[in-house]
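Re: the 349-residue chain
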Amino acid sequence: MIKTINWKNNTVVLIDQNALPSAEKYITCKFYKEVISAIKDLTVRGAPAIGVAAAMGAALGALQLPSLPPEQFRRKFITICDEIAQSRPTARNLFWALEQMKKCLDGAICSGKRDLAKELVNEAKSICLEDIEINRQLGKHGSPLIADGDNILTHCNAGALATAGYGTALGVIRAAHEQGKKLHVYVDETRPILQGARLTAWELQKENIPFTLITDNMAGFLMRQGKIDKVIVGADRIAANGDTANKIGTYSLAVLAQAHRIAFYVAAPLSTIDVSLKTGAAIPIEERKGEEVTHFRGVLSAPKGTKVYNPAFDVTEAKYIGAIITEKGILKKPYHVTIARMYKGEKCS
């Protein structure tokens, strides 16, 4: 299994996703500020993976704090968490993970634990291990949606590299493949960072899952030719009504899928759902630097001084989404009802 992120000897070890597919190398972070940098520059990316990295970064910060009375320790730790929270704004999992770390600390203080940093390290490790199991369960629930012989389109990278392991959208595909189903994946290159071309293709190749790489603007043509049976994507944040933020270009695929009567599915852990937001209109959309569009790996590909608009995500309205696949089961429309029920502890279908 691909080890996207790992805790080793009180350091955080990350596969360098900027180096893939040319080189498989790892970066070791000894300080929480290094984890923040890794999140910002996309060394680690994908909402679940960002969440795990945030938790481990917070744990690193806790280890660096001096011996302090519990309340002083808590204040310092909250400051570290607030700093990590500034790294990227859209991925809900980042904020969810930091909330879990704060809850852990409060519980440890209330229980009279002496080594608070140790408790936080253990919590970060647990979040990492739980993410892998969550993705396996998600894949198990989603795999019945994949028929033998399906041609599946996916966008960006929602595989093991976007999580602590196994994957969300790619986890569903992986689970179906493990069950012996014959399938073929069409991989959007995903401009401007090429997460599909560089990362999803790399993962599928390692897993021996048949795939074909296409440019983003080919998707509609393939749908019209009848070459796509289903679309499965991941998510960075899902509002209470099912509106979903994902990598820029996802919305276009959803509209195209509906026009061609093709099922469009979102696969994401429950930690991606933000019930505090009524609709997708409230989801913060990160805008990244223009150089990601005008350059590729340092090489200029547009006239010098070109103005750029570079939102990293777009929002797909719930009406375009056929189902939301989670680790607890499949959510169906109306999402504002099924999401609310799920948060009350009722079973998904």
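The mean pLDDT is 97.
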